[in-house]
UniProtKB/TrEMBL annotation:
Keywords: DNA recombination, DNA-binding. The keyword Phosphoprotein does not apply. This is Core-binding (CB) domain-containing protein. One of its GO terms (molecular function) is DNA binding. It comes from marine metagenome. Gene3D superfamilies: 1.10.150.130, Intergrase catalytic core (1.10.443.10).
Length: 255
């Protein structure tokens, strides 16, 4: 801003309404209505003077300042965009979901090898998913990741934080398979390596390997869940967890 710029405003009365008069840095004069009440009009005048002194210009000012209206805006970097998205959408998520989404989105964003949001194209999204396919990710995981990216870029587009069109469209292809999850079962050698490894949680590993129990179910299993060698996984609303009180099995289904 020009050091000779004077942000002072003057006030005058016209047809029972008080108006403000001031100059922009490009020496264009602005006149605008304030209020019919003199006290309120003075408050608005002083607030406007403070904004001008700090270099804050509203939409009406910018329209009269083409030299800044079309100036290059700072580009939004991918990590910063991810942080803004996660922070602004956290209210609707449970703590565990938030932790999972933070890990998944930041991991995916780091794979793009791009610095700015507006650099990511459909081609980049497809390459990312192709790489995950080569790593053996299941179709369910791929669809979940595509959904996360679609929500992320869609939010960036709608929020106006960056001038982009979401690169996640119907043209992003995930190969269809006969099932959503991996069909390959672990080999006998792999199971043997798991159960023979000496570690502190070996009893838990053996229990998971030989029963098919999920980790969360095993950690919340109680003696009264087992009767005559049979066990039933039930909801436990009073069970304390790291995310609060209450635990339930996947999809809230007993089994």
């Amino acid at each position: 801003m020009d050091i000779t710029y004077d942000p002072r405003c003057s006030m005058y009365l016209k047809r029972k309404t008080y108006y403000a008069s001031y100059y922009l840095p490009n020496r264009v004069r602005i006149c605008r209505a304030l209020h019919r009440n003199k006290v309120l009009a003075k408050r608005m005048l002083h607030r406007k003077e403070k904004e001008l002194l700090e270099g804050v210009f509203d939409d009406r000012d910018v329209l009269k300042m083409p030299e800044i209206q079309f100036s290059a805006e700072s580009r939004l970097e991918l990590p910063e965009a991810a942080d803004k998205y996660l922070k602004s959408t956290s209210a609707g998520r449970k703590p565990k979901t938030q932790i999972n989404d933070v890990y998944a989105l930041k991991s995916l964003v780091g794979r793009f090898q791009k610095q700015y949001v507006d650099e990511v194209r459909l081609y980049d999204v497809q390459l990312l998913l192709n790489g995950l396919i080569d790593e053996g990710k299941s179709q369910a995981t791929l669809k979940s990741y595509r959904g996360i990216l679609k929500k992320f870029f869609g939010w960036i587009e709608e929020s106006g934080l960056a001038e982009i069109r979401s690169p996640v469209t119907k043209k992003v292809v995930i190969p269809e398979t006969t099932g959503l999850v991996r069909e390959r079962l672990p080999s006998k050698e792999e199971v043997s390596q798991l159960v023979s490894d000496s570690c502190v949680v070996q009893p838990l590993i053996r229990f998971l390997a030989f029963t098919g129990c999920r980790l969360g179910e095993a950690l919340h299993l109680e003696w009264n869940d087992i009767e005559k060698g049979l066990w039933m996984i039930r909801k436990k609303p009073e069970c304390p967890t790291a995310y609060g009180t209450g635990w339930s099995p996947k999809w809230n289904k007993r089994r």
